[in-house]
Amino acid sequence: MKRRSDEATKRRRVPPLWVCLGVILLGSAIRAQDPIPPHPEQIQYPKLDYKIPPAAQFREVLPNGMVVYIAEDRMLPVFDMHITLGAASAFDPKEKIGLASLTGEQIRDGGTQDLTPEELDERVEFLAAQLFSSIGETQGSAGVSVLSKDIDAGIDLLIGMLRYPRFDETRFRLAKERRLQNLKRRNDHTASIEQSEFGFLMNGEEHFTNWYPTPATLNSLTREDMVAFHHKYVHPGNMIVAVAGDFDRKEMLKKIEKAFADWPAGEKSARAFPKPDHDPKPGVYVVDKKDVNQGRVTIGHKGVMRGSPDEFALQVMNGILGASGFRSRIVAKVRSDEGLAYNAGSQFGQGIYWPGNFRAWFQSKSNSCAYAAALTINEIKRLQTEKVSQQDVDDTVNFYVESLPQRFESKLAILETYTSDEYTGRDPKYWETYVENLKKVTPDDVLRVAKKYLHPDSLVILAVGDAEAIIAGGYDKAADLRLDKFGEITRLQPRDPETMKR
Amino acid sequence: MVKLRQDWFLRAAVVALLAAGASPYGAAGKGVEPRIEKLENGLEMLLVERHDQPVVAACMAFDVGSVNDPRGQSGIAHLFEHMLFKGSTIIGTKDYAAEKSIIEQEEKLRELMNEEMNNMREMKRRGKITDVLDPAQWTDRYVELKRRFDGLVEEHRAYIKNNELFNLYTTNGGAGLNAGTAEDFTIYFVQLPANKIELFFWLESDRMSNGIMREFYVERDNVREERRLRTESTPTGKLDEAFEALFWQAHPYGVPVLGWASEVESITAQDVRDFYKIYYAPNNVRLVMVGDFDSDKVIELAKQYFGRIPRGSVPPAPIITEEPKPLAQRRLDGEAETNPQVSIRFHTVAMGHTDEAALDVAAELLSGKTGRLYKRLFTKEEAVIGQPNASNSARKYAGYFEINATVKEGKEPEAVEKMVLEEIENLRDGEISDYEMEKVKNQVLASSVQRLRSNTGLMFQLAIFDLWYDWSYINESPQRMLDVKVEDVKRVIKTYFDPKTRTVAIYRTKPGAAGPDDAELSAALASLPPEAQGMVKAQLAKIKETEDLEKLQQGLQRLEQVLASGAVPDEQKGLMAIMAKAMKSRVAELEAAKKETKQP
Asked: What's the gap between Cα B203 and its chain centre?
């Protein structure tokens, strides 16, 4: 072993590039006329004129007013129908937190008018179908996926489930029991503590995004609550449909129209959700968790609403900072240069219904959290004081623009993007002008929005892990750096996992 | 307790596909017919053209994984995978000659650091220090060497183009660029716009042959952080690792992909160079592409770019270790901050074995919302929460069958284990209906189509199947499952599922890890408004932590008086009693501690 390495060292004394090529290629293939360019930047690529297929190409409105996004896709004998529902946990009454989520689950799990839960499960699994429904923070979704030979049976199952859910009492009880048991596990993972605690710090205790089901609210839920919730929100007027697969477009439209024909359309629910009424208090917050040797750190402040004139400049700025993978500065510094974290990055939230959050994050061994935080904050500040290069902007814009064909890889992916845009009321021109808008961003724009929207002097810094070790720091490259360098430490008692109160 | 030992990407992409047991395509239609091409240097290509979108999924899948880690160097296959993102003699450098000289100096310093580290390990074995990674315990010599080394790393940075490989891919539309290391394969992959294929050939042929140890020790630290993230700072990570080590007595499948901590943090750049030379050769890889390209042109590109690389000079040693037949039951019984769980495992067969399909069918009969385990454990017994799962994992060298379930509060994991074993017995000795078999077969047919939907998914399957057994598995496996008869299922259960030699993991909820651990308290609390619940819990937490024995005893006395006086309303009595209980138990703890400290 030893001798081989000595020989290799000797050989490497000759000019390195040639040696290496010589050793590896054995001098066989590289000739003067070899067409391989010496560097990939010199590769000449064929032209690809990719245009995002416009929404109008897929959008139809049925006589009952329901919007359908539809695309034939004949590659495989499969069929997918996905429905976006105007039902949300934002609509939960405060004493019944958990209602929407449980209802969403029980629409699928609780059987239908004609089928017991067990019979529905048998029907679905015998067809080898996938049938699902769920309700999240601001929207719900339901759908079916089957082989195209079973399209009719698949649509029947989906509509039967959505329109006539049985809400079987036993399944309901078991689901509640499972949820009650799982409430106790909310503090198991540092990742979930970090996520919920940062939510509280940003949006305050009262915002509905921080309403967690508790034993009291779950125990108060009844089958009647679910029936009423379903009655209020689940009807065609409150749905957007996406269908893709192996079918004829015209026939499929007729089929969908017929399937929904005798179901009264009903009202569209309001897409307005309460905004948080809370100003985050800058400072350093630490939650103690024993027996872990890595701290999770989130650093941030409030972001903005989407659709502002600075939307694209902010996207590029955040891409440069921490969202374009290894190209981005936080990753390059904290991970590539310093070896401090496997995972690091940033996000500049541009919220749909309320302002998003700006956050930068990493996970590092306890004693290097303070050092990694210093590096991260420094990168945030640098965006405000140093203009980024044209190369930074170009690379980041290309990062987003060039990968668009992959983003829209399947028909279903295209439809899902447009369904979501329709639901959230995004400007219909958004994708049409997306590339153009990104390409307009200049280094001056990035500097301007960094100055306007980043606030490195009023950061909320949250660390979850072995509190003493994280605060003490002591990493060998910055032995004197403690976490309290960034502000007075507020120690947050872990919340009670069931009530999420302290 | 689903074991996902592979690198992160696999969680989403591959394990989901493979874990369920059933496999893709074939039976429902014409099957997948990749074009196969082999270069003179042994590089094998599998190409599937699909022209509906202008995108291509491409990968290099090497026949190497953690099973090939030399003894004492666990984690090296995975660490090396990281190194191939750091560039080459051409990519990632501003001045390779300068870099080379710095790397040589770094190596010399590292040799000295390794010597000193060995001294510190010796000190640790003798109890003179407790942690060789704690800067506060380092010897002066090590601190000095480390300081000099960090200076070199800093100097080195001036000559590095940070993350150039990543940048070249992503600015040209490369999406999902990543790699993953498993026990028995290492795969590098990316999705590209159809016009950028040549970039893949340039960069992949370059890093197969021109890789260097740039910033090796920094990356080794990142890999150590990855291990902290996935294994050491998660509730069950370390137990999951212990379970693997228990199940595989001899086979290197029992060694973690991320390596044992002490070994990963000791791997040297030279170790990695030796590893690279053996396993990263054209005769040890599959190049797989799925998407919008012309195969003839791709083959030309491959000849041009990869044709220049010679076969490896050191042939990889075969993995010959066979897992000995287990002699006895093995059990792991641990506590963690988690719901109680049970996992039961049996050794089965490698991929492509004649019994594999019947084992896959057995897994299907047990799994799903209409499978036997759900019906018994969830619906009938109400002994589990959520869906129990059974899967047969047949891999390159060996396989196993695993059942796992999350136990409902108030039920014993051992009782759930017994029910599972009974269901396996029922499958072996009882009736299996035609309806159940037909349902399984419908699912086999559907999944054989559904699993072809994404280019990337198909690419992974072809690459991994071909490394493990043969790419044609994608067509064969569904057909073999369709041919399985009831007798076959019964036979394989008799052959492989001997309860006397099962391996079992039971995870129990760590007491006091989270909130009230007793049902009495839960019930009492549920009747209170949320705010009051919080207060009660805060009080209980204070009681558990207090060191003031005297004050606690006084408080307890008062509480007992109040309770005895009859002045407490009925609905509060339960809670008062719970508080009293908590105080008593803390009093007992503190008294015991007092006694201990008094002993000499």
From this structure: 28
Per the CB < 8 Å rule, is A184 touching B408?
A: no
CB atoms within 10 A of CB A106: 23
Fold classification of B32-48+63-179+203-286+296-306 is Cytochrome Bc1 Complex; Chain A, domain 1 (3.30.830)
A336 with B28: Cβ contact below 8 A? no
Nearest by CB to B198, which of A43, A76, A365?
A43
Establish if A413 touches chain B: CB-CB under 8 angstroms.
Answer: no
For B437, the closest chain A residue by CA position comes to A126
A246 and B CB contact within 8 Å? no
Do A61 and B214 touch, CB atoms closer than 8 A?
A: no
State the Cα–Cα distance between residues B84 and A206, nearest whole angstrom: 48
Looking at the complex, report in whole angstroms how far the Cα of residue A501 sits from the nearest Cα belonging to chain B.
6
So where are chain B's domains? 32-48+63-179+203-286+296-306, 330-509, 519-598
pLDDT in tens, chain B (600 residues): 322 233 333 333 333 333 333 333 333 456 899 999 999 999 999 999 999 899 999 999 999 999 999 999 999 999 999 999 999 999 999 999 999 999 999 999 999 999 999 999 999 999 999 999 888 999 999 999 999 999 999 999 999 999 999 999 999 999 999 999 999 999 999 999 999 999 999 999 999 999 999 999 999 999 999 999 999 999 999 999 999 999 999 999 999 999 999 999 999 999 999 999 999 999 999 999 999 999 999 999 999 999 999 999 988 999 999 999 999 999 999 999 999 999 999 999 999 999 999 999 999 999 999 999 999 999 999 999 999 999 999 999 999 999 999 999 999 999 999 999 999 999 999 999 999 999 999 999 999 999 999 999 999 999 999 999 999 999 999 999 999 999 999 999 999 999 999 999 999 999 865 444 455 565 566 666 655 666 677 677 677 767 788 888 887 887 777 777 767 766 666 677 777 777 777 777 777 666 544 433
Contacts of A367 in chain B (CB under 8 A): 135
User: Which residues of chain A lie closer than 8 angstroms to B442, CB-CB?
Assistant: 126-128
Phi-psi label, residue B227: left if phi above 0, alpha if psi -120 to 50, beta otherwise: alpha
Pick among A151, A184, A217 to test the B interface (most B CBs inside 10 A): A184
Our CA-based measurement puts residue A231 at a distance from the nearest CA of chain B, in whole angstroms, of: 27
- Closest-CA distance, A19 to chain B, in angstroms, reads 10
B330-509 and B32-48+63-179+203-286+296-306 share a CATH fold: yes
Q: Which residues contact B537 (CB under 8 A, 6 or more apart)?
A: A496, A499, A501, B515, B516, B525
Task: Tell if the CB–CB gap between B54 and A405 is shorter than 8 Å.
Answer: yes
Q: Which residue of A has its CA nearest to B293?
A: A46
Please name the residue of chain A whose CA is at the shortest distance from the CA of residue B51: A75
B-contacting residues in A 85-124 (Cβ below 8 Å): 118, 121-122, 124
Residue of B nearest to A215 (CA): B526
Closest CA relative to residue B282, chosen from B312, B318, B313: B312
Interface with B, mutate which of A499, A500, A501, A502 (most B CBs under 10 A)? A499
Give the closest-approach CA distance of A190 to chain B in angstroms. Answer: 8
Residue B209: what residue type?
S
Question: Cβ separation of B173 and A406 shorter than 8 Å?
Answer: yes
Q: What is this structure's pTM? A: 0.87
Asked: is B330-509 a CATH 3.40.1000.10 domain? The reply is: no
Q: How far apart are CA B24 and CA B34, in angstroms?
A: 14
Which domains occur in chain A, in start order?
2-33 (no CATH), 55-260 (3.30.830.10), 283-492 (3.30.830.10)
**Which residues make Cβ contacts (< 8 Å) with residue A465, sequence separation at least 6?**
A190, A288, A289, A292, A294, A295, A296, A366, A369, B233
In degrees, rounded to 5, the angle at the alpha carbon of residue B236 between the alpha carbons of residues B235 and B242 is: 145
Please state whether A499 falls in left (phi above 0), alpha (psi between -120 and 50) or beta. Answer: alpha
Inter-chain contact A409–B233, Cβ cutoff 8 Å? no
